[in-house]
């Protein structure tokens, strides 16, 4: 059993003000693998005080000093990457190969992209007419709340630009998947991060999240999670008029036109939907298919879903693992049952666990066809390996269906016509549009329209989120 009962505050590992423990459950075995402490408002007060005290000096450091710290962090992160792989496997059930190939590299990707952005960022420049100086300065003490589905990805995407900007911070990682965050705190400590610049307090939303987002000495909140929780963070932050950056939910449309290579497009589409066991906010979960190839697409989708392997995260291989928790498993089962009740046609998977998986929170890769965009399974973020297929007749109809959602995080296009791809991409109300299976580098902005959030993360765009703009005249 891993014992991680302390918090990282003011450059030291400290005991919580009041002992309250929580077991971390391995979702593949349903057994505890670690014990952490849940913090309280009193722990948050200590962490914020440490961050506030450290801000005066850290905010005045040079670009070279901050870049040197990031370089040390990158080197240690790479050296300890196997530990990060294992932490993510244990806390959230990511298969070994996926943790090593996707989850852990996301952390180094953000660190490296932020370092490059820092080195090239112009912190002071003349105004357009030359009469004033425009200066970027760190916004202050930042509260960071991160989710369990891509744990180190979101931690690095927030901590790296906050450090680069000259901010100090208090991080609350997900209490369900806290091991990667605790390891990252060890990495920062080993890299010589000055005391108080980075602080970590474990806890749940009511006990720690609310205390962070409402704290009067925190100047900015950066939150990734559900839209419901993002609204709560914004409400808590409103009385003190903090800056709030939100990366929230999605129900991303994937437009498949008849001129695409059908099998390639479907394999790309289902792989994207089922990757990370469907637990990605930008997963292409609504597959809109041109009617002339709709029946063929359904048959192929069923075949590909049936070929998708579910397996033990402890084993190597190209398979998906469990979902994060019993609660998440039950939510997904409820969505599947609702889809059946609403009249959607089950093409693959369905309720219950895959054969041979009585233990663990495993879900069958599931495909529904004949879905309308008003059905519950087309409106709500399921956050599991569940794909819904919706037919369309014209390009205009496809765009209308795609945009008919409260979300706007990502959208996908599969087509053999480059001009159509450009034309449709411009019409989609989403923060990111991916064409024919292409994916961006770590310096491309990530964030959403509508209820998918505000602000942008990654590279220079993430750095700018943590900076204030000052005009100096005369």
Automatic annotation (TrEMBL):
CDD domains given in the database record: ALDH_CddD_SSP0762 (cd07138)
Q: Which superkingdom does the taxonomy of this entry point to?
A: Bacteria
The record places domain Aldehyde dehydrogenase at 13-472
Q: Which UniProt keywords apply?
A: Oxidation, Oxidoreductase
EC main group: oxidoreductase
Q: Which Pfam families match?
A: Aldedh
Location of the active site = 247
Q: Which GO terms describe its molecular function?
A: oxidoreductase activity, acting on the aldehyde or oxo group of donors, NAD or NADP as acceptor
Which InterPro entries does the UniProt entry name for this protein? Ald_DH/histidinol_DH, Ald_DH_C, Ald_DH_CS_GLU, Ald_DH_N, Aldehyde_DH_dom
| Enzyme Commission number(s) | 1.2.1.83
Family per similarity comment: Belongs to the aldehyde dehydrogenase family.
The protein in question is named: 3-succinoylsemialdehyde-pyridine dehydrogenase
Q: What is the lineage of its organism?
A: Bacteria, Pseudomonadati, Pseudomonadota, Alphaproteobacteria, Hyphomicrobiales
């Amino acid at each position: 059993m891993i014992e991680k009962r302390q918090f990282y505050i003011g450059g030291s590992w400290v005991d919580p003000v009041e002992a309250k423990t929580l077991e971390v459950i391995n979702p593949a075995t349903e057994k505890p693998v670690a014990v952490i402490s849940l913090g309280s408002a009193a722990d948050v007060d200590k962490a914020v005080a440490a961050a506030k005290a450290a801000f005066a000096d850290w905010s005045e450091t040079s670009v070279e000093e901050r870049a040197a710290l990031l370089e040390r962090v990158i080197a240690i992160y790479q050296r300890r990457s196997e530990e990060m792989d294992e932490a993510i496997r244990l806390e959230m059930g990511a298969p070994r190969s996926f943790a090593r190939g996707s989850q852990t590299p996301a952390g180094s990707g953000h660190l490296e992209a932020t370092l490059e952005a820092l080195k090239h960022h112009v912190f002071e420049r003349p105004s357009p007419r030359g009469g004033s100086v425009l200066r970027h300065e760190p916004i202050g003490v930042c509260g960071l709340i991160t989710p369990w589905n891509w744990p180190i990805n979101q931690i690095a995407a927030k901590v790296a630009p906050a450090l680069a900007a000259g901010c100090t911070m208090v991080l609350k990682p997900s209490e369900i998947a806290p091991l990667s965050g605790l390891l990252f705190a060890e990495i920062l400590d080993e890299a010589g991060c000055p005391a108080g610049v980075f602080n970590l307090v474990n806890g749940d939303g009511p006990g720690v999240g609310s205390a962070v987002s409402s704290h009067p000495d925190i100047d900015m909140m950066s939150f990734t999670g559900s839209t419901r929780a993002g609204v709560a963070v914004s409400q808590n932050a409103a009385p003190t008029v903090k800056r709030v950056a939100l990366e929230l939910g999605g129900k991303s449309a994937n437009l498949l036109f008849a001129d695409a290579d059908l099998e390639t497009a479907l394999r790309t589409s289902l792989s994207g939907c089922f990757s990370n066991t469907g637990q990605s906010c930008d997963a292409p979960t609504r597959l809109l298919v041109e009617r002339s190839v709709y029946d063929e697409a359904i048959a192929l989708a069923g075949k590909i879903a049936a070929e998708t392997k579910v397996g033990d995260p402890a084993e190597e291989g190209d398979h998906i693992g469990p979902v994060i928790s019993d609660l998440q498993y039950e939510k997904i089962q409820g969505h599947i049952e609702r889809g059946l009740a609403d009249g959607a046609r089950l093409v693959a998977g369905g309720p219950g666990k895959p054969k041979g998986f009585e233990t663990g929170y495993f879900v069958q890769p599931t495909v529904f066809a004949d879905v309308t965009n008003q059905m519950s399974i087309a409106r709500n973020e399921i956050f599991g390996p569940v794909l819904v297929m919706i037919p369309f007749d014209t390009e205009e109809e496809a765009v209308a269906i795609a945009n008919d959602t409260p979300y706007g995080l990502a959208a996908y296009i599969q087509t053999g016509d480059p001009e159509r791809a450009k034309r449709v991409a411009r019409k989609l109300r989403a923060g990111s549009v991916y064409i024919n299976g292409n994916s961006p580098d770590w310096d491309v902005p990530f964030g959403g329209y509508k209820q998918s959030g505000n602000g942008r993360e990654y590279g220079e765009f993430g750095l700018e989120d943590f900076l204030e703009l000052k005009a100096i005249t005369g």
